[in-house]
Amino acid sequence: MTKSKASLRNSVKPAPLLVSALLLLLLSGCSGKIEPTYKEKDIPYLVQKICKDEYKLDVTTQRTHNTLWIYAPLNKILHKEYGVNPDKLFDDEVTEKIRNIITTIGRVLISSDNTPQFFAFLASDIKLGIDYTLTGCVQDIKKSYADFIPWTEANRRYVIRFKASPEAIGDNTGYHFMPYDIKMEDFLAEQIAQRVGAKFQDEELKKYFKVEKSEGKFANGIFYFDYAITRTAAPPKPIDIKDEFLDTITYCLKTYDFTDFSGIVLTDLKTLDKLELNNTAILARPNGL
After folding, report:
1. Of 72, 83, 110, whose CA–CA distance to 17 is shortest?
2. Counting beta carbons within 10 angstroms of the beta carbon of residue 78, is it exposed (0 to 12), middle (13 to 18) or buried (19 or more)?
């Protein structure tokens, strides 16, 4: 039975519940030292040009102060078996298109003399009204291409959003979204929550845990993390959800050398247990990942 447009939009699950599948799109990438060949001012144009010339793909690019935005209107995103087959998410042809665009973004950014701090790639299903957004820190891309970090770790650092977006219907130019500067604190809050959600959904742990929610935000100098993760069976090795969150928080904040925060609040939505730690307590913890 074919689903209606409305039912498909309503069935779209938010990140981080699809993060593990979404990250399969990304490539291991090239490696080695890359000499700058492009000028910063040409970055938006070059992404458009390469996508068009090499892949016959039309994208729109916009630059804010610290973020390069790339918009790709697509006639289809979801696989025809989405919602029926748990292993099917993206349409096969769309998977290749998204991979080519992300590869192009990386090629241009690592070959430029000066770059924005972040990039954000938004692909919209303009028939059903669905937005897929992938945000990355440019420094992570450069480290991955230079073999300073493995590509698997680089993929974990992307922040992914996947949501219904009725305003995207018919949008061939990207008018339904407003580009903005991405803030490191917001990027970290989302990445941390996404990492934990994906951790408990990977092949090793998904048989033992159910992830209903894992969200993070930054407000008034504090990182807030809310989660609803239930243990459904005893895993072979004991794992504490709260400790996993704290280890991930510590790892990410130290990795990005981010110290401009006053504390964290960690809330288990199932038990309503709340943990509050200040800046000093978090940064004094060992890097557990």
Report:
1. 83
2. buried
